[in-house]
Design goal:
alpha/beta
């Protein structure tokens, strides 16, 4: 296990310097929208929080962390916070495969496809779409989280944004619960799957839906995706630990200990695999961590987009 303080201080330093926890310029990370032909202005902003875009970089950095965990080299991580964020960020960007970036970009394009088919009125402005800072809150650096969250909230308020559509549970929780508490800024925050309004369809597919902690335990939204899937003819197999009692995928621990994250993920995979149905996640962190074992896991948006065709 790495020293949590070294990880936290590195992330906080990167966020201060680049507004990105990995130090990668947003222009390099956030490119999915270029061929989407989305309107650039409107009243409801699609806010990705950069989470799906980050997963390829998280996986690349975790591979390095896993290699040196519990070795004498792990102590050298303490010096990472002294490296300019954009320098380490560009290095990470270069070592992250483009095919992985495209894979997660497709998920965001599927979400756009679903919202468009549901006749949802929304727009996208990459200048307003920023990382929420939620990982720093999760890791206990409340001061750095609040400083970054205030910057994000002010940017949204200055643009006159009042309504947001989110795509992941971490960003949803941050904007819906943490921002009003710590920044005084309140927005109408709706996960994209609550906006789905598609024609009912017949189908015979059965899947196993993994509930992420923020949707299941803290926001009470686990039933909504299952209802939307049922309307599209996709049945969800019951899982022993779900909803308010869902089991963590292990992903939030991977920056501190890839080994521990893997052990927790394996336990969750065993619970999910017991249903015998293909696995579906609705969180980018869960999706990335559950896939590490080689088990096929689809994103909720991919399943919904597939049921539409």
């Amino acid at each position: 296990m790495y020293n949590p303080r070294d990880i936290i201080e590195t992330i906080a330093a990167n966020l201060r310097q680049t507004r990105n926890p990995f130090g990668i310029p947003n222009a390099l990370v956030n490119r999915w929208w270029r061929d989407s032909k989305l309107p650039y202005t409107g009243e409801t902003l699609l806010f990705t929080g950069m989470m799906y875009q980050f997963i390829p970089y998280i996986e690349a950095s975790t591979q390095v962390l896993a290699k040196y965990e519990d070795t004498e080299w792990a102590d050298y991580l303490r010096y990472a916070r002294h490296v300019p964020g954009f320098v380490s960020g560009l290095g990470l960007a270069l070592m992250t495969p483009n095919r992985e970036k495209r894979k997660y970009n497709r998920i965001l394009l599927d979400i756009v496809k679903i919202l468009t088919a549901s006749k949802v009125d929304f727009f996208y402005d990459p200048r307003l779409d920023q990382y929420s800072g939620v990982l720093l809150y999760d890791l206990g650096d409340q001061k750095s989280f609040v400083r970054h969250a205030r910057w994000v909230a002010k940017k949204l308020q200055s643009a006159g944004i009042k309504r947001l559509i989110t795509v992941d549970p971490h960003t949803t929780y941050a904007l819906k619960e943490l921002y009003p508490k710590y920044t005084g800024a309140s927005f109408e925050v709706t996960p994209y799957f609550e906006k789905i309004d598609l024609p009912q369809a017949d189908g015979t597919r059965t899947v196993t839906l993994h509930d992420p902690c923020f949707y299941g335990r803290y926001l009470g939204l686990s039933d909504v995706p299952e209802e939307k899937l049922a309307r599209l003819g996709v049945r969800c197999q019951p899982v022993s630990q779900s909803g308010a009692f869902t089991h963590c995928c292990g992903g939030p621990a991977e920056s501190i200990s890839p080994k521990l994250a893997g052990e927790i993920g394996d336990r969750r995979l065993a619970q999910l695999a017991a249903t015998g149905a293909p696995l579906v996640a609705m969180c980018p962190i869960c999706l990335g961590n559950l896939r590490k074992s080689g088990t096929p896991v689809e994103d909720l948006s991919s399943v919904i987009a597939g049921a539409m065709t």
